[in-house]
Amino acid sequence: MKYRKLGASDLEVSEISLGSWLTYGVGVKEDAARACVDRAFDLGINFIDTANVYGRGAAESVLGETLAGRKRDSYILATKVFGQMSDTDQGLSRAQIEKQIDASLKRLRTDYVDLYQCHRYDVNTPLEETMAALTQVVKSGKARWLGFSEWSPEQIEAAFALPGVERFVSSQPQYSLLWRRPEKKVIPISAANGVSQIVWSPLAQGVLSGKYRPGAALPGDSRGASDSMGNAMKTWLEPSILEAVQKLKPLAEEAGCSLSQFSLAWVLREPNVASAIVGASRPDQLDENAAASGLAIDPALFAKAEAIVADVRRAA
């Protein structure tokens, strides 16, 4: 496993990180979650990402129990705030941030998180209030560093323009061969301000593994076939997308790796990407994905891949 510095922080995160959206506490049973976390550590994955809203606290609780026996300095833990936790609890107001950080720490069974991220931008709260509250979270020792997820370029720049507040070190956007929107503005702005990307859905919910074939039934053990996890990926299961992805397989074979590894290596070719977040319901999935770290692939093959998916990829 290779490691990269996370923005202007002192954190060295594994190029492949373990996420928990739709999985732990939701679609994956606790014993399987524990097996995946244990395997992640075996593979050198030191970065685990979650959010308070995943399963409305369930993912944090499962991770808290799973990580309880490990030395706190042996892993880097990130969570998020913003999502709706109850009929009255949502957003990035000072009151919500103060309430939700404490609740997250309790579920995670830790005194601090290494990275505390704004899950989305809160248009109903002044940015000054949000940043002041986040700054206090860091000063209190409850979080070491701050990040954001899916903020617009204008929102990112506005945060950096505020004086006297803690600065962000990470951005968590969707990014893959099929979704390249961050390249236009978010990555350049981030690189200029000491911010690294921690990308989610680098495999387009598993479609870039190549296991979903056009016209074929969904694999029974796949996320796509799961009642609890499948809805989030329906837009990726269009025949034109699946057909294009199948055409990528010979490129991966030429590179000497699986299509999943090829697709993850494509994401990691971007210097501003510190880590690619993968989900796992079985340990062997992590074996497959972790092997993408450090892969040296001919850029010409990546260029061919980009051309193949050019007509079906989203958000150029």
Number of contiguous helices: 11
- What distance separates the N and C termini? 30 Å
**Which sequence of strands runs across the widest sheet?**
3-10-9-8-7-6-5-4
Q: What is the element string, with H for helices and E for strands?
A: EEEHEHEHEHEHEHEHHHEHH
**Low-pLDDT segments, ≥5 res:** none
Write out the CATH superfamily name.
NADP-dependent oxidoreductase domain
User: Largest sheet, described in full?
Assistant: 8 strands, parallel
CA-based shape: globular
Which structural class matches the secondary elements? alpha/beta
Outline the structure in words.
By secondary structure, the chain is an alpha/beta fold. The chain has one domain (3-206, 270-299): Alpha-Beta Barrel (TIM Barrel). The chain has helices spanning 30-42, 58-67, 94-108, 127-139, 153-161, 186-192, 239-246, 249-255, 259-268, 283-290, 299-308; strands at 3-5, 12-14, 16-18, 47-49, 76-81, 113-118, 143-148, 168-171, 196-199, 273-278. Strand 1 (3-5) and strand 2 (12-14) form a beta hairpin. The protein is globular, with a radius of gyration of 19 Å.
Structure keywords:
316 residues; eight-stranded parallel beta sheet; TIM Barrel; 35% helix; alpha/beta; two-stranded antiparallel sheet; 11 helices
Q: What's a concise summary of this model?
A:
The protein is of the alpha/beta class. The chain contains eleven helices and ten strands. It has one domain: TIM Barrel, CATH 3.20.20.
